[in-house]
Amino acid sequence: MNYQMIETDDALASLCEAVRACPAIALDTEFVRTRTYYPQLGLIQLFDGANVALIDPLGISDWSPLKAVLRDTGITKFLHAGSEDLEVFLNAFGELPEPLIDTQILAAFCGRPLSWGFASMVEEYTGVALDKSESRTDWLARPLSERQCEYAAADVWYLLPIAKKLMIETEAAGWLPAALDECRLMQQRRQEIQAPEEAWRDITNAWQLRTRQLACLQLLADWRLRKARERDMAVNFVVREENLWAVAR
Questions:
Q1: 48 is an active site residue
Q2: Which listed residue (48, 85, 87, 102) is catalytic?
Q3: Where is the HRDC domain (predicted)?
């Protein structure tokens, strides 16, 4: 499939000007999050129904054209299993795509598995078995290989036409309003920032602790989350979960 690399501010501005005339686009992101608390953006994929664009964030400084596209309520944005992508957009740009429709949510309302993977969806609708071997690649390394670019482009190339079919199916089943409500709820949940004092709830087996031990765990988990955000470190690189639990106990 053909795709266009977007590596400069001028190229991004031209792309976004063309996209503003489109009623719907498919979006995806590639990012790295191994040792950091916040996702590190490596690539943005966009398909407007005619052209696939791979936007390289490492060469772009003026993101205002893309932010305008994300805010443009006249353009429907389709993602698949987009919760983490929303976090990437929010962290990188302070913006979320609006309006947003998640094809995994549409599919669930049509009777597919709740966590239906993108590759499975593509295979059902097109018969194409996607190569997902690049899913764990280093998206911050440059130059990107042809194989990486083709993998990334496929994520939006197939998404947009399938999304349109799922919209028709969901509406025919009478579930479209409910599915769109669920998409809005997902977006709202992503905007909610976890309070550090609630971080203990994510600790496995916290329920096994007695009252004083649980109070200790709450303080430790609070401290760990604050440090992770302050230093941009994955929480388990600050202190591993099992060590928090052991100290509290």
A1: no
A2: 85
A3: 210-249
19/95 same-domain check: yes
Burial class (CB in 10 A: 0-12, 13-18, 19+), 186: middle
Q: Is 151 a catalytic residue?
A: yes
* Per-residue model confidence as pLDDT tens digits over 25-75: 999 999 999 999 999 999 999 999 999 999 999 999 999 999 999 999 999
Residues 122 and 10 in one domain: yes
Exactly one of 3, 37, 151, 158 is catalytic; name it.
151
Contact between 4 and 51 under an 8 Å Cβ cutoff? The reply is yes
Do residues 114 and 120 touch, judged by C-beta distance below 8 A? no
- Given the DSSP bridges, would you call strands 40-47 and 24-32 parallel, antiparallel or unpaired? antiparallel
Exactly one of 28, 56, 87, 102 is catalytic; name it: 28
The total number of structural domains in the chain stands at 2
Give bridge partners of residue 41 from the DSSP assignment.
31
- The CATH number assigned to the domain holding 27 equals 3.30.420.10
| 72 flagged as catalytic | no
Is 56 one of the annotated active-site residues of the chain? no
Tell whether pTM > 0.70: yes
pLDDT at 49 (0 to 100)? 96
